[in-house]
Amino acid sequence: MACALTAGYSLDCRDGMGGVKSIYLANYENVSGVTSADGVITAIAKANGGRFYKFNLTRATASAIEDFQDDLATGSTFNNQTITLIFNKLQAATRNQIAIIAGATLVAVVEDRNGKYWYYGKESGLMRAGGSAATGTSGADRNGYEVILTGEEREMALEVNSATVALLETP
Predict the structure, then answer these.
(1) C-beta of residue 82 within 8 angstroms of C-beta of residue 148
(2) How far is CA 123 from CA 7, 116, 157, in A?
C-alpha cells in the first residue's frame, strides 16, 4: 500500500521557537534542479550565474505557513505556501527590490528561529500575492513594507541541509 504509515511521533524537548530569521530568494528559472532524500534537500543546482539573495529580517515580523488543502471528492491534495515578509523603513532601495519581486516567480529558502532551513516553491514557484507600504500613524508605528508571497505545491516544504545553504549565495 503506497500510503501506509511507516512511523509514529514522539514528543521531543520543548525547545522549539516560532518565527523567521532570514530568507534566501532566487528566481525560479535560476534553479535547475534539487536533490533530496527522506525529506531533506542535499543539493540545489543553479543555472549558470544563478544565485540566491539573503534578506535578514527583524525578529517577530515574518512568517512562513503551509496550509494543507485536500478535496475528498476529487482525491486531490496540495499545499498553499504563504510567506509574509516585513521590511522596516520606507526607502528607495527596498522599494526597488519589491518592484522586482512583484514581476518575478521565485523560490525561497526560509531560515526559521530553530536553525532549520525550508525550501518553498519547488515545483511551481512563489509569486507576490499582495502586501503594502505604510508610513504608520504614530511614532511607534511601523514605517515600511509588507510583502506576501504565495504558491501551490504538491509536496510540503522540504528541509535544506546546512551544507547546501552555505552555497546558496555563490553563483
Answers:
(1) yes
(2) 26, 21, 10
Give how far the C-alpha of residue 18 lies from the chain's centroid of Cα atoms, to the nearest Å. Answer: 14
pLDDT tens, position by position, 13-35: 888 899 999 999 999 999 999 99
As a whole number, the mean pLDDT across the chain is: 95
Does the pLDDT value for residue 151 go beyond 70? yes
C-alpha cell at 132: 503594502
Which H or E run includes 97?
helix 92-103
23 pairs with which residues across the strands? 55, 110
Read off the C-alpha cell for 4.
Answer: 501506509
Report the alpha-carbon distance of residue 49 to residue 71 in Å, rounded: 40
